[in-house]
Amino acid sequence: MCEVLSAICTSPIGRLTISYCLQGLHSISQISTINDRSFLPHANQSIEYELPCDIDDPILDSCREWLDDYFHAGVHPIKTPKLCPTVIMKGNSFQENVWYTLLKRVPFGHVITYGELAKLAGNTGAARAVGTAMRRNPFQLIVPCHRVICSNGKKGNYAGGERNSVKVWLLKHEQIENCK
Ligand SMILES: [Zn+2]
């Protein structure tokens, strides 16, 4: 059993809640009050933890570094923070394979369709199941569900349709302009 702790940090897309154990991250997501009506991005906002939390924790530190690279260095972050294997493990389920494939195969500045991702994760035709996996993604940004778009070129939903403006912002941040 993991002892799960949590922390909150600031970011350009608002505050992020991070939960983690000794083995790695359990989740990362925008705080629950952020939606299309309240979303107010600040491109220059730095990544800082709000106290109290253990800022010397290596998992939190690697997460901060990753977020800083993602938002401010304009590069694809190279070192993915450790993810707890109780949450994501290759081969464990189709859903976890989808997350894992997206993490490993769809880099900064690229997009993939729901159908293509289904195929890449080993189940051609499971585009709908991919949609479900995206809604349940525990690792916002790190498992880049914002890079998954519709086959007709439309951006599609984010967070079940509650945060579509966040998806638009993230794709623009990655200079992806070639989808509607
Ligand atoms: Zn854990």
UniProtKB/TrEMBL annotation:
<keyword id="KW-0227">DNA damage</keyword>
<feature type="domain" description="Methylated-DNA-[protein]-cysteine S-methyltransferase DNA binding">
    <location>
        <begin position="94"/>
        <end position="175"/>
    </location>
</feature>
<dbReference type="GO" id="GO:0003908">
    <property type="term" value="F:methylated-DNA-[protein]-cysteine S-methyltransferase activity"/>
</dbReference>
<dbReference type="GO" id="GO:0006281">
    <property type="term" value="P:DNA repair"/>
</dbReference>
<keyword id="KW-0862">Zinc</keyword>
<dbReference type="Pfam" id="PF01035">
    <property type="entry name" value="DNA_binding_1"/>
</dbReference>
<dbReference type="GO" id="GO:0046872">
    <property type="term" value="F:metal ion binding"/>
</dbReference>
<dbReference type="Pfam" id="PF02870">
    <property type="entry name" value="Methyltransf_1N"/>
</dbReference>
<protein>
    <recommendedName>
        <fullName>Methylated-DNA--protein-cysteine methyltransferase</fullName>
        <ecNumber>2.1.1.63</ecNumber>
    </recommendedName>
</protein>
<keyword id="KW-0539">Nucleus</keyword>
<comment type="similarity">
    <text>Belongs to the MGMT family.</text>
</comment>
<dbReference type="InterPro" id="IPR008332">
    <property type="entry name" value="MethylG_MeTrfase_N"/>
</dbReference>
<keyword id="KW-0238">DNA-binding</keyword>
<dbReference type="InterPro" id="IPR036631">
    <property type="entry name" value="MGMT_N_sf"/>
</dbReference>
<keyword id="KW-0489">Methyltransferase</keyword>
<dbReference type="InterPro" id="IPR036217">
    <property type="entry name" value="MethylDNA_cys_MeTrfase_DNAb"/>
</dbReference>
<dbReference type="GO" id="GO:0003677">
    <property type="term" value="F:DNA binding"/>
</dbReference>
<feature type="domain" description="Methylguanine DNA methyltransferase ribonuclease-like">
    <location>
        <begin position="8"/>
        <end position="72"/>
    </location>
</feature>
<dbReference type="InterPro" id="IPR001497">
    <property type="entry name" value="MethylDNA_cys_MeTrfase_AS"/>
</dbReference>
<dbReference type="InterPro" id="IPR036388">
    <property type="entry name" value="WH-like_DNA-bd_sf"/>
</dbReference>
<keyword id="KW-0234">DNA repair</keyword>
<dbReference type="InterPro" id="IPR014048">
    <property type="entry name" value="MethylDNA_cys_MeTrfase_DNA-bd"/>
</dbReference>
<keyword id="KW-0597">Phosphoprotein</keyword>
<dbReference type="GO" id="GO:0005654">
    <property type="term" value="C:nucleoplasm"/>
</dbReference>
<dbReference type="GO" id="GO:0032259">
    <property type="term" value="P:methylation"/>
</dbReference>
<keyword id="KW-0479">Metal-binding</keyword>
<keyword id="KW-0808">Transferase</keyword>
<comment type="function">
    <text>Involved in the cellular defense against the biological effects of O6-methylguanine (O6-MeG) and O4-methylthymine (O4-MeT) in DNA. Repairs the methylated nucleobase in DNA by stoichiometrically transferring the methyl group to a cysteine residue in the enzyme. This is a suicide reaction: the enzyme is irreversibly inactivated.</text>
</comment>
